[in-house]
Write a structure and sequence with these properties.
The protein is an alpha+beta fold. It is built from four helices and 14 strands. Helix 2 crosses helix 4. The radius of gyration is 19 Å and the shape is globular.
């Protein structure tokens, strides 16, 4: 088996524990996307305790979601899957071009606009001052990632659900979703469509950070005729990304949205290498 065809099998999943006084409607977005050709779902399982009726649907961004009602008392929601991924890291294509606005596909145009967490309009002048002289295309997006990686401090608790890219730019600190929002904001300000992505990312080929596994957020920029992966938080190609949600920003990619008094008690995320087939 050649290195380019080598596949790895990942074990991914999550578990959420809730406590509620009353029946609480909820939307859950934790399942791997089936339209991502960079991986293949070999097996997956959804369960809840107590056993809850769910309704699956795809939202406007094509993200897989479940609607359900969290029962009064204690409720556990669980998802697990075996995923086959390439053993190769994220693609790097230094020749991927930046398209003229008038040449962009219609469906990418919404990802040029400012959104709830990505204030590309407010940071447009800053973006052009910092990156306007950089070569267009992949090198320009990489320059954005380099700046975010070097100038934004990763710090747990540095942001809240209300923190925007403008806040992060001013306070110079955030978590992975804030790094993604900053990259998206600068790209959009520079005329490059960019969208938010979150999912599972195992620690393959990297030093164990020694912290509990969590979901990870990165972004994609539209260059050279397709969407390309960039990660301003880690800022180097990684192995085994499994996308769950894509959208304008984190608003479109909430793991669990509740409409009531349900309180999150526990959360566990798993993303690890399960096996490597023999060559």
């Amino acid at each position: 088996m050649s290195p380019t065809s080598l596949k790895l099998t990942l074990s991914v999943g999550c578990e959420f524990g809730y406590q509620s006084q009353f029946p609480t409607p909820a939307i859950v977005q934790v399942e791997a996307r089936r339209d991502d050709d960079r991986f293949c779902i070999a097996r997956e399982n959804w369960s809840s305790s107590p056993d809850l009726e769910t309704q699956k649907y795809a939202d406007l961004q094509g993200n897989p979601n479940r609607r359900l009602i969290i029962a009064p008392g204690a409720t556990t929601l669980s998802y697990s899957a075996e995923i086959e991924v390439s053993a190769l890291p994220d693609e790097v294509d230094l020749d991927a071009i930046q398209h003229r606005i008038e040449e962009l596909p219609d469906e990418t145009l919404v990802f040029l606009l400012a959104s709830r967490y990505c204030h590309s309009d407010a940071l447009s002048d800053a973006a052009w001052k910092m990156f306007g002289d950089s070569p267009g295309g992949w090198p320009r997006v990489q320059a954005v990632c380099d700046w975010v990686h070097q100038n934004i401090q990763y710090r747990a608790g540095a942001s809240t659900p209300l923190t925007t890219s403008l806040d992060v730019f001013n306070q110079q600190a955030g978590i992975c979703r804030d790094f993604a929002h900053m990259g998206i904001t600068f790209c959009r300000a520079l005329g490059i469509p960019a969208r938010y992505v979150f999912g599972y990312l195992p620690d393959i080929g990297v030093v164990d950070p020694g912290t509990p596994m969590d979901f990870h957020a990165w972004f994609e920029a539209y260059l050279g005729g397709r969407w390309r992966t960039f990660d301003a938080r880690h800022n180097f190609p990684r192995i085994g990304r499994v996308s769950v949600g894509r959208g304008r920003d984190a608003v479109d990619c909430a793991m669990i949205t509740t409409f009531g008094d349900a309180t999150l008690q526990t959360m566990r995320v798993q993303a690890e290498l399960k096996s490597v087939p023999e060559a």
